[in-house]
Amino acid sequence: MTNSPFPYTFDRRDTCASVVSRFGALGPGSSTGVAVSVAGRVMLMRPQGKLAFARLVDASGSIQLFASQADTGNFEELSKLSLGDWVGVDGEVITTKKGELSVKVDTWVLLAQARRGFGDKWKGISDPDLRYRQRYVDLWANPSSRESLLMRAATISFIRNWLEKRGFIEIDTPVLHPIAGGATARPFVTTHNTLDMDLYLRIAPELYLKRLVVGGFDRVYEIARVFRNEGMSPRHNPEFTMLELYQAYSDYNDAMVLIKELLMDLAKELTGDLVLTYQGNLIDLGSTWEKRSLSELVSEAIGLEVSVSTDREVLVEQCKARDIQVKDDWGQGKLILELYEKTCEATLWGPIFVTDFPREVSPLARAHRSQPGLTERFELIIAGRELVNAFSELCDPDDQRSRFESQAAIKASGDDEAMEVDEDYLRALEYGLPPTMGLGMGIDRLVMLLADVSTIKEVIAFPTLRPEVY
RNA sequence: GCGCCUCUAGCUCAAUGGCAGAGCAACGGACUCUUAAUCCGCAGGUUCUGGGUUCGAAUCCCAGGGGGCGCACCA
């Protein structure tokens, strides 16, 4: 048997789940007369003399196989299958004397062998290194791994549908950028041989998507893989997935309305509830989403009324009191942001909109219409983490140029995460960007919330790891 | 990059300075209603690597490597 070549196809007409849902309620010892064909891996095998019971698992679920020497072709070989072997089975749907719904194997074929085992059949595998390196094993050993990836797929699919119903179109923008813009982060650098130049893997699709708004796509988005050459952690992977969307004729208040609707609809559809349980705590998306300004939150946290116009020395002192390494070129805006990140962010459970970020730390956001030194920008915090960053987009080319120039100055003084002047982007703005809101959301972190997992590696099929040494 | 923790059979784990073990998987066998089947048998090891201390090291120490968590950076 094992010497014969494996078949190239199998006519699988039923899934385990479809058989279970069609025949789930039969009493013990039933025969249905209905023939099905199923395929998958044999994950448990209980040979018992002239009978054998096996658990067949496929992408949909699992069902018991019942085989007997009297009725099953190649019975001896069947009862000797290794755990993990792939088989295709034709047989009748029955229940056993004990009432277990089963496919009574008539004929079957070995589709592929598992030369290696899938871990302890009760405890599976738990070593994180092994699980992430050999995801093909983990997915069989740990059903929750499969569920997390299914949740990810469902989330992305839902978002695309939801946005498209509202007139958004998705357009792919370049991954290879001559200038790494749209965010402050260290990029991965690569080289194009023919052009003989460095290119950067994108850290954000933002500047290209806004060029598309200039080009007339007034509702545009991209679900974009982006790359940041930064540290790795349970919440950071070097490549991750962002939703960025832009809607013309709108401001950041409209962005708050939109994201709240999107997240509520998403949770209802995917979990059936507006209340998520995350790591043992509740996140109520049906509640009123609080809206607080950044300086308000910082003032509360440090017990001192501060803003971007507070005397710089006062802010420096507050930072130093909290072990923040202050740099000489930090202005009040940066100092306030540092204070916020140190004292507030992780303590906010949310959902909460943190609004009105300093101009100094928001080089692509439009100046606040009434508050000098601030921008119309918010972050949505859920479970102590930034999930969304959004603003009224900066449309004024002159203002944008001066922001780029301050960024370039910071970069020149040694911060390799700061932005450069992007002349083509400035030219695009000179053609006119209408009032526009833009919003970015970390898809991986969103899925972490929905799947209730504590590390980003759980929601990425193949997270970045050091290469294995063989 | 720094700090703490961790690494034993394919998997999950014991052995706390004194003979490296168990369950599961694999392999051989028994069994006509199992449900992590049960039972019998067999095999499986550079205890992550390299040094050191010791009569003796999986165990203690040093260095290196993988991983986890935290910090930093960032989303």
Short description:
With 470 residues, this protein is of the alpha+beta class. 30% of the residues lie in helices and 26% in strands. The chain is elongated and about 90 Å long.
Describe it.
The two termini are 33 Å apart. The strands form four sheets. Strands 6-10-11-18-17-16-15-14 form an eight-stranded mixed β-sheet, with helices on both faces. It is of the alpha+beta class. Helix content is 30%, strand content 26%. It has helices at residues 16-23, 75-79, 128-133, 135-141, 143-165, 206-214, 252-271, 294-302, 312-320, 332-343, 397-412, 423-430, 443-451, and strands spanning 31-48, 51-57, 62-68, 86-95, 101-112, 169-170, 176-177, 189-192, 197-201, 219-227, 239-248, 275-278, 281-284, 290-293, 352-355, 377-382, 385-392, 436-442. It is elongated. The mean pLDDT is 94. It binds one RNA strand of 75 nucleotides through strand 1, strand 2, strand 3, helix 3 and strand 17.
Keywords:
alpha+beta; RNA-binding; single chain; eight-stranded mixed β-sheet; five-stranded mixed barrel; 30% helix; 18 strands; 13 helices; 26% strand; 470 residues
- Beta-strand content estimate: 25-35%
Largest sheet geometry = 8 strands, mixed
Between the first and last Cα atoms, what is the distance in angstroms? Answer: 33 Å
Tell me roughly what share of residues is in helical segments.
25-40%
Please state how the strands of the largest beta sheet are arranged side by side.
6-10-11-18-17-16-15-14
| Total beta strand runs | 18
Shape: elongated
Oligomer: single chain
| Average pLDDT metric | 94
Radius of gyration: 28 Å
Q: How many helices does DSSP assign? A: 13
Unreliable spans:
none
> Which class best fits the helix and strand makeup?
alpha+beta
